[in-house]
Specification:
- The chain is an alpha/beta fold.
- It has two domains: 228 residues, TIM Barrel (Alpha-Beta Barrel), CATH 3.20.20.60; 52 residues.
- It is 47% helix and 17% strand.
- It contains twelve helices and eleven strands.
- A nine-stranded parallel β-sheet has the order 3-2-1-9-8-7-6-5-4. The protein has a two-stranded antiparallel ribbon with strand order 10-11.
């Protein structure tokens, strides 16, 4: 699984915003050609993103433009404009089944060949945004070796279901859980829906803390001001790192004494707990090197 925590949307038709976003502290920059761009600006966004790929890719970010959905008639031109040696992947909305992913992969292979880009280089982040997509999410997640992650889209999902978003998020708990499980089973990253109230940092942090236990590893941002919280909370805290070291230390001491379990701060420490601690330290080490 490839490591990333934050993905920042930027309207692809706004040159000024693309330039500002190029210095943002995001793991993945997502120049957008879909929802944030009006229909009469789609062509302009496509051209502008293509023009600025060299500049954007020179920063410490991976570039994953969001293209228009497969059924719009725009996706081929979108992909043609952005596939290059500098583009890490594409993000595609309104995915309904594994067939969609396979069709998109065929388009990518054709354009990679035309542009002398290594076949399979361009990754895919698929948006899970409907009841049908939730039903098919496991096959979507494993549909192609190009799959980088699956992203849950809360707004479109609730629209599809004919239900309202709530402050508690109870209405999207089940689909979020399904997305996270499918991503883990496929060995890719589960990415959470954006928090749309970008001025409410406390609400953002509360939402992140609610999806971390479900297995989400990253989150989309719609404003640079959200990135610090996303990056911090999707990274192991120093407190968690120190506790993990203690867990391993007391367990290894117990093993020397012939015991397969011990305790720390009144809690049992056995093999699964130690495995979790080692995984956390491995993650922290990888993040420190990236």
């Amino acid at each position: 699984m490839e490591l990333f925590r934050s993905l920042l949307f930027v309207p692809g038709n706004r040159s000024d915003m693309l330039e500002k976003a190029s210095t943002a502290n995001t793991d993945i920059l997502v120049p957008d050609m879909e929802d944030s761009v009006p229909d009469n600006e789609k062509s302009n966004a496509r051209s502008l993103i293509s023009e600025k790929l060299s500049t954007l890719s020179g920063k410490n970010q991976s570039i994953v433009p969001r293209v228009n959905a497969l059924d719009t008639g725009l996706i081929f031109d979108d992909i043609s404009a952005v596939v290059s040696s500098k583009t890490y992947g594409i993000s595609v909305g309104k995915i309904e089944s594994s067939w969609d992913i396979k069709e998109i992969s065929k388009i990518l292979s054709q354009i990679e060949s035309e542009k002398s880009v290594e076949d399979g280089k361009t990754k895919i982040i698929a948006w899970i945004e409907s009841a049908s997509a939730i039903v098919n999410v496991s096959s979507i997640a494993s549909a192609s070796s190009r799959m980088l992650g699956i992203a849950f889209g809360g707004e479109d999902y609730t629209n599809d279901m004919g239900i309202q978003r709530s402050d508690t998020g109870i209405e999207i708990l089940y689909p979020r859980s399904v997305v996270a499980i499918a991503a883990k089973a496929a060995g890719i990253t589960a990415i959470d829906t954006p928090y749309v109230n970008f001025r409410d940092n406390d609400g953002l942090e509360q939402e992140i803390k609610s999806v971390l236990p479900l297995g989400f590893k990253a989150k989309f941002a719609i404003h640079p001001g959200q990135l610090e919280s996303i990056n911090n909370l999707f990274s192991p805290s120093q407190e968690a790192i120190e506790y993990a070291k203690k867990v391993i230390e007391v367990f290894e001491e117990a093993e020397k004494n012939g015991s397969g379990a011990t305790s720390l701060d009144g809690k049992m420490i056995d093999v699964p707990v130690v495995k979790r601690a080692r995984n956390l330290l491995e993650l922290a080490n990888k993040m420190s090197q990236s």
